[in-house]
Design brief:
By secondary structure, this protein is α+β, with helices and mostly antiparallel strands. 28% of the residues lie in helices and 32% in strands. The longest helix is centred in the N-terminal third of the chain and has 54 residues.
Length: 275
C-alpha cells in the first residue's frame, strides 16, 4: 500500500514538473543551427561541383587524346607511304603549311600487290565557330585518287575515297600567339660537308607566300619540293564537347616527326632516292 502510494506520488510530481517546465529552443539556437546546416550543405555542394568539373575535364582529355592519337597514326602512315612516280618524278607534288599532295604506294589485297595512288592531306577549316572562342578549328581530310594504268604516263582520274582523318583540329601557336604550320618540311643540307661528304642533318625547307597553295597557306618552292625527306606534324586535338560548350576547353597537343620512305641518310645528296 505504501509502495503504491509512493509510485503514484512520483508520477504526479514528474507530471507537474513537465507541465511547469517552459524551457525550449531559442531563436539564437535556431539561427545557429540553420547557419551550421547551410555551411555543411555549401561544403557538400562545392565537393560535388568540383568532382563534376573534374570528371568532365577528364572525359574531355580522354576524348581528345584518343581521337588525336588515332589521327596522328593515320597521317603518319600516309606520309610514310610516299613513292616516287619514276626516276625523274619525286613523290611530293606540292607541300604547304596546311596540306600536301604526293604519290604513294600501298598494298592492295584485290590486286595481290602494290597500287600507285595520288594522295592529298589538307586542313579544312570548320565554318562553325566554336562557342568557347577556341580560334580556327577544322578537320584534316584525306583524298585519294587511283590510276588504272600499269605503266607511265600515269593519269590519276579515279576518286577512291575522301575521308576525315582528324576531327576538330586546331592550329598550335607560338610564344607570340601566332599560329604554327600543321606541316613543316625538312631536307638534307648538301652544303654542310663533314669528313668529305655532305651531312645528313636535315634543315628546314622554308615555305613562302610566293608559293602559296590555294587556301592552304604558304608553300615550298618548286626547287625544294623534291628535297623533302622529313615532315613535322603539329596540331591540337579538341574534345567534341567544345563545339557546344561555352566553357573554356583545353586541347591536347600532338607532335610527330616522320621520315619519308624514300629518304636515305647514308646518301643525303640523292635523298629522296628518286632525285
Amino acid at each position: 500500500m505504501m509502495l503504491r502510494y509512493a509510485q503514484e506520488r512520483l508520477k504526479a510530481v514528474s507530471k507537474e514538473r513537465l507541465v511547469d517546465d517552459d524551457r525550449g529552443t531559442t531563436l539564437v539556437e535556431v539561427m545557429v543551427g540553420l547557419l551550421a546546416g547551410m555551411v555543411v550543405l555549401m561544403l557538400a555542394y562545392g565537393m560535388w561541383d568540383a568532382a563534376t568539373k573534374s570528371q568532365a575535364n577528364t572525359a574531355d582529355r580522354i576524348d581528345a587524346n584518343a581521337r588525336g592519337r588515332v589521327a596522328m597514326e593515320r597521317i603518319t602512315r600516309d606520309i610514310r607511304s610516299q613513292q616516287c612516280l619514276d626516276s625523274a618524278t619525286p613523290a611530293m607534288i606540292w607541300a604547304a603549311d596546311l596540306g600536301m599532295e604526293f604519290y604513294s604506294s600501298v598494298a592492295d589485297e584485290n590486286l595481290k600487290g602494290q597500287r600507285l595512288e595520288r594522295r592529298r592531306l589538307e586542313w579544312v577549316k570548320d565554318p562553325v565557330q566554336f562557342k568557347d572562342g577556341g580560334g580556327d578549328v577544322g578537320d584534316i581530310v584525306e583524298t585519294v585518287w587511283w590510276t588504272n594504268q600499269t605503266a607511265a604516263p600515269f593519269t590519276f582520274n579515279v576518286l577512291k575515297r575522301k575521308v576525315v582523318l582528324a576531327e576538330d583540329v586546331q592550329r598550335a601557336v607560338d610564344k607570340a600567339g601566332l599560329p604554327i604550320a600543321i606541316f613543316q618540311y625538312y631536307g638534307y643540307d648538301p652544303s654542310n660537308v663533314q669528313v668529305g661528304r655532305p651531312s645528313a642533318t636535315p634543315y628546314p625547307l622554308v615555305t613562302s607566300t610566293a608559293n602559296a597553295v590555294n587556301t592552304l597557306g604558304r608553300g615550298v618552292s618548286t626547287a625544294n619540293i623534291s628535297k623533302v625527306v622529313i615532315v613535322d606534324i603539329n596540331y591540337l586535338s579538341r574534345p567534341r564537347r567544345a563545339k557546344n560548350s561555352r566553357k573554356k576547353v583545353y586541347p591536347v597537343q600532338f607532335f610527330n616527326r616522320v621520315s619519308v620512305r624514300t629518304a636515305d641518310p647514308s646518301d643525303p645528296t640523292r635523298s629522296p632516292l628518286c632525285i
